[in-house]
Amino acid sequence: MAAMLRALFYLTILFNIHFSLAQDENQFIYNGFQGANLHLDGIARVHPNGLLQLTNTSKNLKGHAFYKIPLSFNSSSSALIPFPSFSTNFAFAMVPEFPYLSGHGMAFTISHSMDFSQAVATRYLGLFNFTDIGLPTNHVFAIELDTIENPEFEDIDDNHVGIDVNSLKSVKSAPASYFSGAEGKNISLKLINGEPMQLWIDYNAPQKTLNVTLAPLRSQKPNRPLLSTAIDLSQFLLEKMYVGFASATGSVASNHYVLGWSFNKSGPAQNLEISKLPPVPSHKKRSQNPTKIIMVTIAVILVLIMVIGAVYFEIKRRKKYEEVREEWETEYGPHRFSYKDLYIAVKKVSHDSKQGMKEFVAEIASMGRLRHRNLVQLLGYCRRKGELHLVYDYMSNGSLDKFLFSNEKPNLSWLHRFRVIKGVASALLYLHEEWEQVVLHRDVKASNVLLDADLNGRLGDFGLARLYDHGTNPQTTHVVGTVGYLAPELTRTGKATTKTDVFAFGAFMLEVACGRRPIHLQGQTEELILVDFVLECWKRGAILDASDQNLEGNYLAEEMELVLKLGLLCSHSIPAMRPDMRQVMQYLDGITSLPEIQTDIGVFTSMFTSNEASEFIMSFPSSYGRLSAHSLSSNESILRKGR
Ligand SMILES: *[C@@H]1O[C@H](CO)[C@@H](O)[C@H](O)[C@H]1NC(C)=O
Ligand SMILES: *[C@@H]1O[C@H](CO)[C@@H](O)[C@H](O)[C@H]1NC(C)=O
Ligand SMILES: *[C@@H]1O[C@H](CO)[C@@H](O)[C@H](O)[C@H]1NC(C)=O
Ligand SMILES: *[C@@H]1O[C@H](CO)[C@@H](O)[C@H](O)[C@H]1NC(C)=O
Ligand SMILES: *[C@@H]1O[C@H](CO)[C@@H](O)[C@H](O)[C@H]1NC(C)=O
Ligand SMILES: *[C@@H]1O[C@H](CO)[C@@H](O)[C@H](O)[C@H]1NC(C)=O
């Protein structure tokens, strides 16, 4: 009897609890799910402390939890009962197996059926399968908390909240975040951070608007929703619908928990009582080891990459500095450099023949004996497969043309320019007349003039062209030089003389004084011939108009006039009319004054333009192999420049 009474007593208590939790099918609240009226399937279970666990870290499994009693939504029988508004909120937590990897997410779900046996886990979240996804007959509405970016469903990222109708291709979605009124800005949330959060879903049936709002568990409900959209749920939901949660794992898995849930069709859902909610188990210990393993793996891979990289670069480095060395070269020992020492080098001459190399190197050694303060000293050479490198003194300020034509260097004052012109003139005089044999330069131009630390001009690449003549058939003609600096007779006969050097020097003087190249393109097609331009200014009685505008008139007028007129004189089309370098020096030093110069057009001329010049590029003596020759532009040398 007592036992029976006691049994009845317990039964009454049980009934009361049940009743108080869900008196009304239109509203319920669960602060923890002890004794909750839930239908569970898959791996979903309620822990003794009331924690609802939808999934654990077992792979490719589903878990569902639905409120057992169907709720009436779309009353088709009577138009008098309108589609209800509803409001719900729940607390959840996602505790992943690995800190940065989680699958596949969970969804608050309103469905016409609780039977999801045909649905698939993984990215389908246990809601759909391959054949029924997207079908209007599903009658499934869901708010997904998606932690994997899935291109098939056009997911925006791997951490978002989305509104889904009959499909997992969201109607609308947003990266997980909440609006903080205190801070006045959105704050991002990582869904899989293991911390409990709350989600609110509010549907206003008359207005047909839906709000979804996310926040950390202990925050107030933000006054701005994360998602807000116009949607008519009456189009999708049937009369009897079940509300609950679906979740699934894939090849990566996460513990998905629901801590508490309130639902209301009669007004705003009550707030959960946070103090009553079950705690979320910590999985930190489990997740530490995999982290460590990942870190160690990454470290090992990095070390491997570094070792492989070091070996690769060492092989590459050796290859890069590989040189050609032959027995006979020991004789020229002091003139030979290691390629590594001069990789910042100098002048590269291609050769693909061994023939004549010996003579060539002998010439270089001989050129190395040339000494003048306005010559760049040739120090020696280096040989590699198919390449010969000539080593000159390093000139810290680079070439003169950079100062004249590019903005990367400061403007050069007239004082410096005039000094450079005189210096180059004296170097040419030395080559032509003062050394033991006549050395022709054959490529005088601003880019072959280098400036030392004190901005003194030093002529580079001297004598190099002469080497090409060595031991060759005198019948062979070959032009060496640069278009715009080539004397007219040189292009006809191919025979270089001191006067062809003087012609080039004339072009060089005009270049320095005017700050323009001998031939340069004006606009699209028109070429400006510098000689013609200076001549025109002169005939107008305003030769100083030709001076470089960057100088802004800061020059000695007599010096400028002298350089311009002397430049023209050196550009005379008749070689005999050009002064020699000794006379040039005397004019520049003011020892002799300039003769009268005829200013007829046609007397001074660069004779041809760059297009015509290409015909004059000839083969080089075969005994030295084929030196690299290629088509010319007006400021390109026939000798290919090294680095
Ligand atoms: C997940 O839950 C299922 C069902 O409760 C259980 O069989 C399985 O061992 C659990 N897996 C893990 C990793 O705890
Ligand atoms: C997909 O689910 C539907 C029920 O929604 C079922 O009729 C169908 O057979 C399932 N398809 C597959 C391939 O399992
Ligand atoms: C959705 O949020 C907006 C902006 O806060 C608000 O004006 C509107 O009333 C909300 N609607 C519902 C159904 O809660
Ligand atoms: C905050 O996020 C919402 C939803 O993504 C967006 O509409 C809103 O412009 C954001 N507000 C600020 C201040 O960034
Ligand atoms: C819901 O009810 C409305 C009005 O009775 C009806 O037009 C609509 O088709 C219903 N929706 C569904 C999915 O049956
Ligand atoms: C539902 O809304 C009504 C009216 O605002 C309120 O009295 C009731 O407490 C709410 N119930 C729940 C479970 O939110």
> What ligands does this structure carry?
2-acetamido-2-deoxy-beta-D-glucopyranose
Query: Which CATH class of the largest domain is shown?
Result: Mainly Alpha
Rounded mean pLDDT is 81
What ranges have pLDDT less than 50 throughout 5 or more consecutive residues?
Answer: 7-23, 467-477, 606-643
Distance between the termini: 109 Å
Report helical residue fraction: 25-40%
The shape is: elongated
* Percentage beta strand: 15-25%
Query: Looking at this structure, what is the CATH superfamily of the largest domain?
Result: Transferase(Phosphotransferase) domain 1
Q: Characterize the biggest β-sheet.
A: 8 strands, antiparallel
Level-2 CATH architecture of the largest domain: Orthogonal Bundle
InterPro entries: ConA-like_dom_sf (IPR013320), Kinase-like_dom_sf (IPR011009), L-type_Lectin-RKs (IPR050528), Legume_lectin_dom (IPR001220), Prot_kinase_dom (IPR000719), Ser-Thr/Tyr_kinase_cat_dom (IPR001245), Ser/Thr_kinase_AS (IPR008271)
Catalytic activity: L-threonyl-[protein] + ATP = O-phospho-L-threonyl-[protein] + ADP + H(+); L-seryl-[protein] + ATP = O-phospho-L-seryl-[protein] + ADP + H(+)
Family: Belongs to the leguminous lectin family.
GO molecular function, one term: ATP binding
